[in-house]
């Protein structure tokens, strides 16, 4: 069973959301979004296999991650859930809905990553291994600021550092993730895109300053899916939570 953060009310009948983070992320990244944007919902936010406080044991392929998420839903929910998935989480959300549509009420895909360029994925996997640690938290923070976290509010980035950066016995700092799992997952993101069943209401928010949503991803989307360009880089829920919250609330009800 994955380590799963649970936010929001526990009252019977409360709508349930499964929030799935991306590669190198963690479930607690959803805390602010849960508290601020969907306080009426119960949010299940697991640490994926190979990340944070969940097991780091392989296998790390997409099918295993989907099986892990099925366990989370069956353990914590007694009705179909609305699934919000970011990046890798979006790929897993689609595969979860395709494999177990009985568990999924609706999908909100945040800049999902599917069928990415294989050469790019290989390069990023190699860079993950070569540049995995940092000399200090400031260096780790600067690395975030130089990429997709450039416009994320300071307090949100500070949360990320406090929650997810750890000091190893060597004295160097790392994100609390398995290097091997992350490298393997970049290979998984080159696999063919999978779309959700047309019976599952689906909204895809495409970040207009990122390049993760491929033509193959869009082609795989079910009939009736809504695709919306939003003013953000890849960290959509952290950069523009209010916009994401509007779409989430419309799907959750």
Automatic annotation (TrEMBL):
The keyword Hydrolase applies. Keywords: Hydrolase. Residues 15-118 form the AB hydrolase-1 domain. One of its GO terms (cellular component) is membrane. Its EC number is 3.1.1.10. Gene3D superfamilies: alpha/beta hydrolase. One of its GO terms (molecular function) is tropinesterase activity. The keyword Nucleotide-binding does not apply. This is Tropinesterase.
């Amino acid at each position: 069973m994955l380590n799963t953060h649970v936010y929001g009310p526990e009252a019977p009948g409360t709508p349930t959301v499964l929030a799935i983070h991306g590669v190198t992320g963690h479930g607690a990244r959803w805390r602010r979004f849960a508290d601020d944007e969907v306080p009426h919902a119960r949010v299940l936010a697991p640490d994926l296999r190979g990340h944070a406080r969940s097991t780091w044991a392989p296998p790390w392929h997409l099918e295993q991650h989907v099986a892990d998420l099925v366990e989370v839903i069956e353990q914590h929910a007694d009705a179909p859930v609305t699934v919000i998935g970011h990046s890798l989480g979006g790929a897993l959300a689609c595969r979860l809905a395709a494999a177990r549509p009985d568990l999924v009420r609706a999908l909100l895909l945040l800049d999902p990553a599917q069928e990415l360029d294989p050469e790019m994925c290989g390069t990023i996997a190699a860079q993950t291994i070569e540049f995995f640690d940092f000399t200090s938290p400031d260096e780790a923070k600067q690395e975030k600021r130089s990429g997709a976290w450039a416009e994320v509010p300071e307090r949100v980035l500070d949360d990320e550092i406090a929650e997810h950066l750890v000091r190893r016995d060597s004295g160097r700092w790392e994100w609390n993730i398995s290097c091997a799992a992350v490298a393997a997952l970049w290979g998984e993101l080159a696999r063919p895109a999978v779309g959700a069943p047309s019976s599952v209401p689906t909204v895809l928010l495409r970040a207009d300053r990122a390049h993760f949503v491929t033509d193959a991803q869009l082609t795989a989307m079910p009939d009736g899916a809504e695709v919306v360009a939003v003013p953000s880089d890849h960290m959509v829920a952290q950069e523009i939570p209010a916009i994401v919250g509007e779409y989430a609330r419309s799907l959750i009800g």
